[in-house]
Design brief:
109 residues, mainly beta, 4-stranded antiparallel β-sheet
């Protein structure tokens, strides 16, 4: 009787590495849209991304914000940030688009 060698999943036996970098979107009181692209993986730093109306797919996060803060953890580098206000005016022509802060090597809270 032949025995199958069990397949070992490395992720199942060790904790997944946390995403080391952080991008923060800060609303300025005006409805605006954003898209952030990284050359690695990105995920929203919240318990319920659906509540934030944000779509995260692989290396891209996109959504809207008017007030408040949205945070994303990622690895790699930020490759593109696209911001537009409610009239479709892009940054830097619009003073109403959200502020974006990118920090590398930030430990999880």
């Amino acid at each position: 009787m032949a025995r199958d060698t069990p397949v070992q999943n490395k992720a199942a036996t060790t904790d997944a590495e946390p995403l080391p970098n952080l991008v923060t979107i800060v609303g300025r009181g005006v409805p605006s849209s954003f898209e952030i692209t990284v050359d690695g993986e990105i995920e929203m730093d919240t318990d319920d991304p659906v509540e934030e109306a944000t779509v995260v797919s692989g290396s891209v996060a996109e959504g809207s914000i008017d007030v408040g803060v949205q945070r994303f953890r990622f690895d790699g580098q930020v490759t593109n940030v696209h911001l537009v206000d409610w009239n479709g005016v892009p940054a830097p022509e619009s003073a109403s688009v959200p502020n974006v802060h990118v920090d590398y090597g930030v430990p999880e809270r």
